[in-house]
Amino acid sequence: MADKRSRVNWRGYLPAIVTPFSDDGALDPQRLGTYLEWLLAAGMHGLVIGGTTGEWTSLSPAERRDLFSMVGAQMKGRLPIIAGCTSFTPHESIDLARHARDCGFDGILLTPPPYVRPSEEELFRFYKSVSDANVLPVCVYNWPPGTGIDMPPELLARIAVLDGVVALKQSTGRLDLFVKTFFMLRETVRIFGFAMDEHGLTLLNGAGGDGTMGAGGVLGRDQPDFYNHLWAGNLDAARACGAKDRMILDQWYTPDLVGRFGSGPAVLKAAFDVLGMPLGGVRAPLIDVDAHGRAQVEATLRQIGKL
């Protein structure tokens, strides 16, 4: 199984980026291009495109493909790029994966189909269908807040042995399940989802692990530097970077990673706007952060030293 892990070079901090829109709500290639170059210059170890943070739920099928085309044209070969291909059916996910492959993407990120709450056997067959299509390496995403399903470690172990599955983003809200999953599967697939706190640092330093697929990359270099310092053996510097990431998580999100004063995409877009990089608003049914929420975002960024 070790060779499955070696098929990809994904590790470190890979932000799930927001999708920039113009003032009239359309995809904005110029804002996207500026944002991508900023993320690259900040040292991100890879990017996740068109996921939950990227508002895939409000993008049309054509827009999802256009987004992959724009990102692939600019970023292919410059760092790992992973396409969010969550859909209601395996057929839709496979079609999106094929387009992502043609655009130069390195893999796909795939949650369980949302809303319908499939059984464990249905979930296994869903992932098997995508794996068997052999389009791109698959990162399975366990995302209970968005799907209503917290896949148990035993099911994840069944899915992890599928040949096309090379990674797992484990976003369960339970630390015990995260740790159990990590020790069960760390030799089989790459494991993402480590908190950049003392728990995460202890696990990563003592037992290994691959990285974090975080939200937006809003703190710039501090987030990938958590891993850069860890790999260099400078745990105090890693701890300092991680403390900044934990501050935004604690102040902006609930323990279940739901925004405290707006949706995740809305909070991150407000943060980038405060930082001087306007990426547009969010699309309905989401709404932009109000003045009170924006003030809280600004206060956190000022406390961290970003303003």
UniProtKB/TrEMBL annotation:
Keywords on record: Lyase
Catalytic site positions: Y141, K169
Keyword ATP-binding found: no
Domain of life: Bacteria
Residues that hold pyruvate according to the record: T53
InterPro entries given in the database record: Aldolase_TIM (IPR013785), DapA-like (IPR002220)
GO terms (BP aspect): N-acetylneuraminate catabolic process
Family matches, as SUPFAM superfamilies: Aldolase (SSF51569)
GO MF entry, a single one: N-acetylneuraminate lyase activity
Signal peptide bounds: none
Listed GO CC annotations: cytosol
Stretches of the chain forming a coiled coil according to its record: none
Keyword Nucleotide-binding: no
Family: Belongs to the DapA family.
Entry-linked PANTHER family: N-ACETYLNEURAMINATE LYASE (PTHR42849:SF1)
Protein name, entry field: 4-hydroxy-tetrahydrodipicolinate synthase
Species assigned in the record: Blastomonas natatoria
Upper taxonomic lineage: Bacteria, Pseudomonadati, Pseudomonadota, Alphaproteobacteria, Sphingomonadales
